[in-house]
Write a structure and sequence with these properties.
This protein is mostly helical and about 500 residues long. The protein is about 65% helix and about 0% strand. The protein has five domains: about 1-170, no CATH class; about 190-255, Leucine-rich Repeat Variant (Alpha Horseshoe), CATH 1.25.10; about 255-325, Leucine-rich Repeat Variant (Alpha Horseshoe); about 340-405, no CATH class; about 420-495, Alpha Horseshoe (Leucine-rich Repeat Variant), CATH 1.25.10. The longest helix is centred in the C-terminal third of the chain and has 19 residues, at about 475-495.
């Protein structure tokens, strides 16, 4: 019988399992010896966890080796489900080609994982896919979660599994049902035929399954338009967490037209101080709704005015939502926030004010002044705000590039994310981004290429030669891939009428 655990506990189990592998003496002894690890993996008389540790080691030391890939493929037929499951996970991880979307900081470093949403995989992963599905349905919760995450990363390449995943939505084990919904959403349009099956899961007896089903439908976006009515019915679910995820899904699928239906639930979540993260997500959903969410202004103003510690993210999200809703009744609260002690809140409030009133002098002056200040946090917050408002683009980009080089993990991540989010109206950033294509930092080079692609046609003349060079000569595949996509974006912009 499968041991069922909630997602948070699943993650803990995976972490414990990985620590166990890393602490294994064999693992330490063979850290730089792919040949030895391969021999252990293929040794049917070796202990199970030694073989799994060997597979883990091969992910680091065996990349690019056809012998290692063959050994992992051979292990897919092993009699032990955990051994073959981990072999499938490692084989897929090693088969991943390149990526260019900024994701999250790599533990213990100042670098970031770069993903390619969705990533590119070779045909060698085909035999691993049914093994991953088996692991998802298996009795070992740590492996089950990692298999689920691996299938989610594979995305469209796992489309051959949609029929079996749809069946898994009715599995007797709740965790299998919610993991199946997650993977189907990650597969995307190729799994749209399963939307009715996922919609039916809104009636599941397990609230976690209902929550995941709602989230999955939201990820399908407009393709799940036919599920809006069942989702609206689910807004009456007895579980607040389920109602909250249902409301999010309705916003993602239908947006402003469904504002009246979802506002009560989003406001309920916004006022539920037991989960700041849920409050932030609710504020972000209200941002997506925009002007139709005017009824949320008082609640958002209240959260912006809150002075509780560790709620900077919520207060910033509230300020952004007020700006995107655009109701002038929020101006006094936003103007007051211009003197907040938190530079990030000051910047968010200024951007929100400029969205409501593009001529708001005090907001523009605050950002300009903060950009020139002595404090690095102040400067970065102002730079992100100015970029969001489309003001002082060139000096703002300079500050963000400096933060990308010299800031800590969080500062680097925020700066690179802001630079990745530039748009056609940020054409003044082109010279600096072209220069950054030669930067020593792989994350900066990748982000520069992404930014130039986002700016589009306005960057074509100045950026194309350097992007061409980068796409062929950069030592990192992820940077070359980003440059190629940027060139495609510039060419697509040139073809527009």
């Amino acid at each position: 019988m499968k041991f069922v655990t909630p997602p948070v506990v699943h993650s803990l189990i995976v972490n414990i399992a990985v620590i166990m592998f890393l602490a294994n003496p064999l693992f330490a002894a063979s850290a730089d010896d792919a040949a030895k690890a391969t021999a252990v993996l293929l040794d049917l008389n070796a202990k199970k966890y030694d073989r799994i540790a060997a597979a883990q080691e091969l992910e680091k030391s065996g990349r690019g080796s056809s012998q290692v890939a063959q050994a992992l493929t051979r292990t897919l037929g092993d009699s032990d489900p955990e051994v073959r499951g981990w072999a499938a996970v490692i084989l897929v991880h090693m088969s991943r080609r390149s990526g260019t979307d900024l994701a999250a900081p790599i533990e213990g470093t100042e670098q970031f994982f770069l993903t390619n949403g969705p990533a590119q995989y070779g045909a060698e992963i085909e035999p691993a896919l049914p093994i991953l599905l088996e692991a998802l349905r298996g009795s070992e919760p740590g492996l089950s979660l990692v298999a689920t995450q691996t299938l989610e990363a594979v995305g469209t390449a796992a489309s051959k599994l949609t029929g079996e995943l749809a069946k898994a939505l009715k599995d007797k084990v709740p965790s299998v049902r919610w993991e199946a919904a997650d993977v189907l959403a990650a597969i995307g349009p190729a799994a749209k035929d399963t939307i009715p099956d996922i919609t039916a899961a809104l009636q599941d007896t397990d609230p976690t399954v209902r929550k995941y089903a709602a989230s999955a439908l939201g990820k399908f976006g407009a393709s799940a338009k036919g599920s809006v009515v069942p989702l609206k019915n689910a807004l009456k679910d007895a579980d607040l967490d389920v109602r909250f995820h249902v409301a999010q899904a309705v916003v993602d699928i239908d947006g402003a037209p469904s504002a009246d239906a979802v506002l009560p639930v989003l406001l309920e979540s916004l006022k539920d101080h037991s989960s700041v993260s849920a409050q932030i997500i609710a504020a972000n959903a209200l941002s997506k709704i925009g002007p139709a969410a005017r009824g949320a202004v008082p609640g958002l103003v209240a959260e912006l005015a809150a002075e509780a510690k560790n709620k900077g993210g919520l207060r910033g999200a509230a300020a952004e939502a007020l700006g995107r809703i655009g109701d002038k009744s929020a101006i006094p609260a936003l103007a007051k926030a211009l003197s907040d002690e938190d530079p990030g809140i000051r910047a968010e409030a200024a951007v929100a004010l400029l969205r409501i009133d593009p001529k708001h002098r005090e907001a523009a002056e605050l950002l300009q002044s903060q950009l020139k200040g002595a404090d690095q946090d102040d400067r970065q917050a102002a730079a992100e705000g100015l970029l969001a408002a489309g003001l002082s683009v060139e000096p703002a980009v300079r500050v963000l590039l400096d933060a990308a080089h010299n800031g800590g993990k969080t500062d680097r991540f925020n700066a690179l994310s802001a630079l990745r989010g530039v748009r056609p109206e940020h054409a003044a950033a082109v010279p600096l981004l072209v220069e950054a294509l030669a930067d020593a930092d792989v994350d900066v080079r990748t982000t520069a290429a992404i930014g130039l692609g986002n700016i589009g046609l306005a960057a074509r003349t100045e950026a194309s030669p350097k992007l061409q060079q980068t796409s062929k000569q950069d030592p990192q595949e992820s940077v070359r891939a980003a440059a190629k996509r940027a060139l495609d974006a510039l060419d697509a912009g040139d073809r527009k009428p």
